[in-house]
Amino acid sequence: MLKNQRTNPEKVVEFLGTFALVFLLILFLPGNSSAKVTGVCSNCHTMHNMQGGSALSNYGADGKPWKGTGPNPALLRGTCLGCHGMGEASKIKTIGSSQIPQVYHTDAADLASGNFRYIETGADDRGHNVVELGNADGVLDGAPGAINQFSHDVCVTDSNLTCAGENGCHGKRVLDAGGGLPALKGAHHGNVDGQLNTADSVSNSYRFLLGVKGLENPTAVATEKWQNVNATSHNEYYGATTPQVLGCSGGETTCHIGGSVQSPNNTISGFCATCHGLFHTLTGAGMDSWEGIGSSTSSPFQRHPTDIVIKDSDEYAVANRTYKAQAPVGRTTVPASAITTATANDVVTCLSCHAAHASNYPDMLRWNYPGDMVAGGGGADGTGCFTCHTEKDNP
Ligand code: HEC
Ligand code: HEC
Ligand code: HEC
Ligand code: HEC
Ligand code: HEC
Question: What is the pLDDT of residue 154?
Answer without folding.
Answer: 87
